[in-house]
């Protein structure tokens, strides 16, 4: 099996990349290899919207500045400039492909406010934006008959020889068949790794596969210490209540019914939403404010942890049904409450990975022929904190860029005759997987136990606030879990849809990703964006205005180094919200 | 890999009220056809003269013919009612840019039915 | 309320079983626990060999459709307490080949979907530079309902016609075709007509209506199909009366 381009993952970035390849060079054969059917991908869960300058009073520079300041100056400004420039075009392309964007009365695209954005520039399809975006992409991709899909195939390894990627090894879940799929280029679009934590908005499939695959293939991971906590998740389930709820005018109240954000340098409590202020502040600051409220005893204790309230009652049923119907549906189904008349209990929840596979502005990793895009990748436009509604357009802009770059590379250097060493590696991997199944058959540790301990470790070690002590403990614990992983048990010996084997492989990927998060967080002795250290509470531009890059050594341990941030037009400054 | 294909149970249509209704409605077309045949026989009898007509009427009075016709009537009613129930879903009518509510379309169907029945009754009974 | 509930789960391991067998598990009965949480509890703590699909656990990815006490349901949006004191019977979706345990083969749908061309078709695509195709909120409302399909397959599982005539294109695929037919930006209705108006298309449907009852997203595929029947019938009559005006 050979394809010029193999895309791992069929979500927003993966589908966009595959279409870009097909458009750039129709002679190329492009395959999407995904562990789920593309329309099950986690892009489907995105709710609030996608940012792209559209209004007359807005400008690309303002979108760029909001993104740069939102990132606490850790993004690369050349990447941000490319991103804000191409985002509106990508969103329009989606419109031309049929995406049901919400509209103004005259038929033009409607935009809404969003956290950390100075102007209204977030395109939305009610509050099911990711769902509509994904299905539009998936259905459009169906019209490209050259795009081959390997649905429900699980990639276990990226094949690399002499610093260049030549394909993947994957398991067909339905049959257990292990195949080497060779390729001229590989694009990793597998999304984030929220399942490394116990309480997350992320779907069950978000296990950092692509990050670990690329890491093991020799590509460095970048800025892994920056984990975004979204301020409003439903307790117990962790289901996301979109930021659009606050953008439409929702308030965050502590146990006294007080809009506590005004105590945290986020502005004054105005009855109507004010851009870049209060509830429309950035996610890192809002989640940190929650922790302070909790420490002051001003949150409400529940069986599922402390909560505050999101108050939407003053918005009225009409607005909620028009702009936030999914929020109402989710609250009613999973919390038994109606936000029209009741307060919504919420607490911060792991939502997004700012870090990921290190790529340049074209999605290329340092490994030749290996590309990455979407949440898996770190270009970086998100730096230390991503702004809400920047991630969907990121999938499109950089999915497209990676697809184009990969198509050019495959067109220029592609060759179906891959080195012999690659085929040997493929056979080795097949043998390893078969042996794994046998070896773990005698294991005694439950996969779920190791996974749960890893998740608790991550929450305790690298939560919203961290310090050296807690992180060193986490690092030790993760080392222990890596050892225990070797004894993890597989009771399922079937070749057919062996989800226990998948869970084992996912856990192995997650442990690697978890270790990289802790290692990078330990090294960064400052507080910036989503990385807040109680032992180093200030930002330190002299030492850390730089990306952390963690590279896997031959012994499996990661080594961290730093890469300067690219600054074009916005020198580092203070992040100001609400004043 | 050998997937399992669940055989369809013979009594699958008893599993749900809607399935039963579906099978009954499919069956109702037989009785619609019966009424057509019956009507043709009637017309044939009329064209053959008063004697043939009287014979037809007499035969229609047999208890089993009456029974068949009562059952047929019930099935045809079922057919009509479910058909009308479907109409508002099939017909999206717009008046002055606004969608006519499904209930109104349903009501219009029943009104038309009533009207046609009344006209028929008037023609026969006057 | 008892603190545990029994789940009777259909098991089918093609290497071992010739047909599904039920296996009982006791799981905690807790408020807020979906049926899916019960299944995950089994997988994590009682029996790692139980196989099922799930992902978003918020009713939008469409992975976790199963038959719960005889009804097609998204197990992430169906709650244990609603079935207390139990037991709850959990089986794979009906009308699909069972691959393993609660996992069914939906390749048939995946193959049929592209045949109705569920993408925006234009005679000429305007350049991106010219901006968006205008569409008023009313025009959006025309097709919005049909765009809500999450491909969860509950409608196929509920449809007796699909069970009896596997060639039927089916509720979701037809609803998605209608989603584009009714989109003011689309010009591809005639390209979809051949497949939709074929015997395997709308005319297979006898309006049982269970697809719409089963749909967790309020798509109403039955409505979409009946509506297209009228469209197709009207078109046939027009073509018959005015053969020359047809295209």
Task: Describe the fold and architecture.
Chain A is an alpha/beta fold and 579 residues long. Chain A folds into 3 domains: 298 residues, FAD/NAD(P)-binding domain (3-Layer(bba) Sandwich), CATH 3.50.50; 116 residues, Flavocytochrome C3, Chain A, domain 1 (Alpha-Beta Complex), CATH 3.90.700.10; 121 residues, Up-down Bundle (Methane Monooxygenase Hydroxylase, Chain G, domain 1), CATH 1.20.58. In chain A, 36% of the residues lie in helices and 18% in strands. Chain A has 15 helices and 21 strands. In chain A, the strands form 5 sheets. In chain A, strands 1, 2, 6, 7, 8, 9 and 16 form a 7-stranded mixed β-sheet that branches. A 5-stranded mixed β-sheet of chain A has the order 17-15-10-20-21. Chain B is mostly helical. Chain B has 2 domains: 68 residues, 3 helical TM bundles of succinate and fumarate reductases; 36 residues, no CATH class. Chain B is built from 4 helices and 2 strands. In chain B, strand 1 and strand 2 form a beta hairpin. The model of chain B has no long low-confidence stretch (mean pLDDT 90). Chain C has 247 residues and is α+β, with helices and mostly antiparallel strands. Chain C has 2 domains: 101 residues, Ubiquitin-like (UB roll) (Roll); 139 residues, Fumarate Reductase Iron-sulfur Protein, Chain B, domain 2, CATH 1.10.1060.10. Chains in contact: A-C, B-C. Chains A and C meet through helix 3, helix 4, helix 9 and helix 14 of A and helix 1 and helix 3 of C. Chain B: One of its GO terms (cellular component) is membrane. Chain B: This is Fumarate reductase subunit C. Chain B: It comes from Kribbella caucasensis. Chain B: Pfam families: Fumarate_red_C.
Low-confidence parts of chain B:
none
* CATH class membership of the largest domain in chain C: Mainly Alpha
| Beta-strand residue fraction of chain C | 5-15%
Could you spell the SSE succession of chain B in H and E letters? HHHEEH
Biggest sheet statistics of chain B: 2 strands, antiparallel
The proportion of strand residues of chain B reads under 5%
**Protein chain pair with the most extensive contact, residues per chain:** A-C, 62 and 61 residues
CATH superfamily of the largest domain in chain C: Alpha-helical ferredoxin
Structural class of chain B: mainly alpha
Strand order of the largest sheet of chain B: 1-2
CATH fold-level name of the largest domain in chain C: Fumarate Reductase Iron-sulfur Protein, Chain B, domain 2
Radius of gyration of chain C: 21 Å
| Cα distance spanning the termini of chain B | 73 Å
């Amino acid at each position: 099996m050979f394809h010029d381009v193999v895309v791992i993952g069929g979500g927003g970035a993966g589908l966009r990349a595959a279409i870009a390849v097909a458009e750039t060079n129709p002679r190329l054969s492009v395959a999407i290899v995904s562990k789920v059917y593309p329309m099950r991908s986690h892009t489907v869960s995105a709710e609030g919207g996608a940012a792209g300058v559209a209004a007359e009073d807005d400008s690309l520079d303002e979108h760029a500045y909001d993104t740069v300041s939102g990132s606490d100056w850790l993004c690369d400004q050349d990447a941000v400039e490319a991103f804000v420039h191409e985002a509106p075009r990508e969103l329009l392309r989606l419109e031309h492909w049929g995406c049901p964007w919400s509209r103004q009365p005259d038929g033009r695209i409607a935009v809404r406010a969003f956290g950390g954005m100075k102007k209204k520039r977030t395109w939305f399809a009610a509050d099911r934006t990711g769902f509509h975006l994904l299905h539009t992409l998936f259905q459009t991709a169906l019209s490209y008959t050259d795009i081959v899909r390997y649905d429900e195939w699980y990639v276990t390894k990226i094949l690399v020889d002499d610093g260049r990627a030549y394909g993947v090894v994957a398991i067909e879940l339905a049959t257990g068949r292990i195949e080497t799929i060779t390729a001229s280029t590989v694009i990793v679009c597998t999304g984030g790794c929220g399942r490394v934590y116990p309480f997350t908005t992320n779907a069950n499939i978000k296990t950092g596969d692509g990050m670990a695959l690329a890491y093991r293939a020799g590509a460095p991971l970048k800025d892994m210490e920056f984990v975004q906590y979204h301020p409003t998740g439903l307790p117990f389930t962790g289901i996301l209540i979109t930021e659009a709820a606050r953008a439409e005018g929702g308030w965050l109240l502590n146990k006294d019914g007080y809009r506590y954000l005004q105590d945290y340098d986020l502005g004054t409590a105005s009855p109507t939403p004010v851009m870049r202020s209060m509830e429309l502040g950035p996610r890192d600051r809002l989640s940190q404010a929650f922790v302070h409220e909790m420490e002051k005893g001003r949150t409400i204790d529940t069986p599922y942890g402390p909560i505050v309230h999101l108050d939407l009652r003053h918005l009225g049923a009409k607005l909620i049904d028009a702009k936030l119907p999914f929020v109402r549906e989710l609250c009613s189904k999973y919390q038994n409450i109606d936000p029209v008349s009741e307060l919504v209990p919420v607490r911060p929840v792991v939502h997004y990975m700012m870090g990921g596979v290190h790529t340049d502005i074209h999605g290329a990793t340092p490994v030749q022929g290996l590309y990455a895009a979407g949440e898996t990748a770190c270009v970086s436009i998100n730096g230390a904190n991503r702004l809400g509604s920047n991630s969907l357009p990121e999938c499109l802009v950089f999915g497209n860029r990676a697809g184009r770059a990969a198509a050019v590379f495959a067109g220029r250097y592609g060759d179906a005759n891959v080195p012999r060493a690659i085929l040997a590696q493929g056979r080795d991997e097949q043998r390893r997987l078969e042996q794994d199944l046998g070896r773990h058959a005698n294991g005694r540790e439950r996969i779920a136990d190791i996974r749960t301990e890893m998740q608790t470790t991550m929450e305790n070690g690298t939560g919203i606030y961290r310090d050296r002590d807690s992180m060193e403990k986490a690092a030790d614990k993760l080392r222990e879990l890596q050892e225990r992983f070797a004894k993890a048990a597989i009771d399922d010996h079937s070749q057919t849809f062996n989800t226990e084997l998948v869970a084992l492989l996912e856990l192995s990927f997650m442990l690697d990703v978890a270790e990289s998060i802790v290692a990078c967080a330990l090294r960064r002795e400052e507080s910036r964006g989503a990385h807040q250290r109680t032992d180093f509470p200030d930002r330190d531009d002299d030492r850390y205005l730089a990306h952390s890059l963690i590279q896997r050594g031959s012994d499996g341990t990661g080594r961290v180094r730093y890469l300067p941030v690219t600054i074009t037009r916005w020198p580092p400054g203070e992040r100001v919200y609400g004043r | 890999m050998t997937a399992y294909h669940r055989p369809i149970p013979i009594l699958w249509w008893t599993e749900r009220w809607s399935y039963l209704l579906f099978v009954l409605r499919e069956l109702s077309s037989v009785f619609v056809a019966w009424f057509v045949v019956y009507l043709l026989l009637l017309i044939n009898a009329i064209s053959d003269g008063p004697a043939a007509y009287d014979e037809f009427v007499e035969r229609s009075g047999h208890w089993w013919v009456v029974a068949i016709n009562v059952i047929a009537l019930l099935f045809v009613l079922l057919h009509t009612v479910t058909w009308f129930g479907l109409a508002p879903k099939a017909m999206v009518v717009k008046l002055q840019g606004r969608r006519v509510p499904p209930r109104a379309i349903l009501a219009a169907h029943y009104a038309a039915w009533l009207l046609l029945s009344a006209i028929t009754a008037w023609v026969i009974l006057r | 309320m008892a603190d545990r509930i029994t789940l009777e789960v259909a098991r089918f391991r093609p290497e071992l079983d010739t047909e599904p067998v039920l296996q009982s598990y006791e799981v905690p009965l807790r408020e807020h626990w979906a049926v899916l949480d019960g299944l995950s509890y089994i997988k994590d703590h009682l029996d790692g060999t139980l196989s099922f699909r799930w992902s978003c656990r918020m009713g939008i990815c469409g992975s976790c459709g199963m038959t719960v006490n005889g009804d097609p349901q998204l197990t992430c949006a169906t709650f244990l307490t609603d079935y207390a004191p139990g037991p709850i019977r959990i089986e794979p979706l009906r009308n699909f080949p069972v691959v393993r345990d609660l996992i069914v083969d939906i390749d048939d749908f995946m193959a049929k979907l592209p045949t109705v061309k569920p993408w925006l078709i234009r005679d000429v695509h305007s350049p991106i530079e010219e901006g968006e195709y205008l569409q008023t909120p009313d025009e959006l409302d025309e097709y919005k309902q049909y765009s809500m399909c999450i491909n969860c397959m509950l409608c196929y599982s509920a449809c007796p016609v699909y069970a009896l005539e596997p060639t039927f294109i089916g509720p979701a695929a037809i609803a998605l075709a209608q989603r584009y037919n009714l989109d003011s930006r689309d010009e591809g209705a005639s390209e979809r007509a051949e497949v939709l108006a074929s015997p395997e298309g709308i005319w297979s449907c006898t309006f049982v209506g269970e697809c719409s009852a089963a749909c967790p997203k309020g798509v109403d595929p039955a409505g979409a199909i009946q509506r297209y029947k009228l469209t197709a019938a009207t078109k046939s009559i027009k073509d018959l009366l005015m053969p020359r005006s047809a295209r």
